[in-house]
Amino acid sequence: MSLTIPAPPSVPFLGNIGTIDKEVPLNSFMLLAKQYGEIVQLNFVGNKVVILNSYDLVNEVSDEKRFYKKVSRGLLQVRNAVGDALFTAHAPGEQNWYLARTPDIPLSTPHIECAKSTALLSTLPHSPGDVRGNRFGPTYSIDPAADFTRLTLDAISLCAMSYRLNSFYREELHPFAQAMVDFLIECGNRSFRPALVRPLMRGTNAKYEADQQVMMNLVDEILEYRKTHPTDKKDLLTLMLTGKDKETGLGLPEDNIKRNLLTFLIAGHETTSGLLTFMVYYLLKHPEAMRKLREEVDTMIGDRPMTIDDIHKLPYLIAVMRETLRLSPTAPVRGAAPIEDTTLKNGSYFVEKDSGILVNVTMSQRDPKIWGADAEQFRPERMLDGKFEALPPNAWQPFGFGMRACIGRPFAWQEAQLVLATIIQRFDLVMEDPSYSLHIKQTLTVKPQDFHIHAIPRAGKP
Ligand code: HEM
């Protein structure tokens, strides 16, 4: 007989909506995990969601024969702007997802090629330390989350769509970035708001529509620019416009191309800028790790400009990235559902076909069973010398799982390495407030909040 899944007390109709911190839902999920353990069930206005917190359970649902990606409540709201584009498509189900992921339209290759060429590297002179540290000096207060957002948004737009946004030439963030943050926050809020209340919030709804329009305006601008400036470059945009599935002869419909462009602009920068900001935070909190990384960069790269061929020469940097994404996966949870009625943990917990499961990646990547008693500590050494490769399956899952895993992983990986190594090469970074302790802000992804640094140019460095 299966066990009852533990659940916090709930109120009639609303269920556990009041249990969740609306600004940073992840904080509530982490608290619930500490209180209830490996599995906990929440009820959102009658919709039950089971949250999985342990490695064993996450490993069990990482099985495409039994489970599929369920578009979570938050992502369902994101569909209002991006519909059946890659991230938010119902797959199995929606045909455009299969089209966009057919090997005949290899959407993950053009931006990898682009990173190998000079396009991505050409965004580096605008990396945070460079612009702020050199232009404004070592006492200037840098907001790395904002500047890495500028950098990664410019990089995805340039590499995937050959379109320059020049975000470092404006005081404020690009209007797209601000509209996107507001849109994603409202998507999160809507997912916790009873549907009955929604029509009453006219001002909020108008702003929600306006933010979508601002984002779509950029997509239209990029498409218009392509029409007036045709190119032979096989970038992601070209592939989307011309690619065809060999078997069916079908290409992506125009509306889906627009929604995929928007998806790439969002998914292609928000998570990577979070990764870069968390990396800087962890390194500054762990001076010995920073010292080792700096030594590696100085030894392997020295004073010359970093190139794409260097990215295989920096094992400690890769360990820092892996360890950062273990403790702070910037996409902290993912949705899943059983294909059929089933049980988890050898019959212990019954889960109904199509019912919502939330995989708490942040928590399962801290499971002491896999990571030991110091699982909560930042220790890049645990990712070195073959230890990462020897991990059990699905222990490290910041890029998702299976057929719905991240399509931009190689791009993000190269980008983050190039950016961080180039900054370390040129600058000493210091925390503005050495007593700062990590707190996060959350849209659908997470980033450090109120975190500020200084960048001091290193003597005699490029
Ligand atoms: C999917 C994480 C960078 C594009 C995903 C998923 C995760 C993830 C966890 C699966 C989500 C789910 O199961 O619901 C990350 C992280 C990144 C990153 C941590 C950086 C550190 C990027 C970049 C791009 C990108 C740079 C674009 C160039 C996408 C797309 C999907 C996706 C389009 C949907 C794939 C599908 O459903 O077929 N990402 N991502 N991501 N990612 Fe990323």
TrEMBL record:
Binding residues annotated for heme, in chain numbering: 406
Coiled coil segments of this chain: none
Family label: In the N-terminal section; belongs to the cytochrome P450 family.
Record-given protein name: Cytochrome P450
Record organism: Meripilus lineatus
Region of the whole protein represented: 1 to 462 of 1058
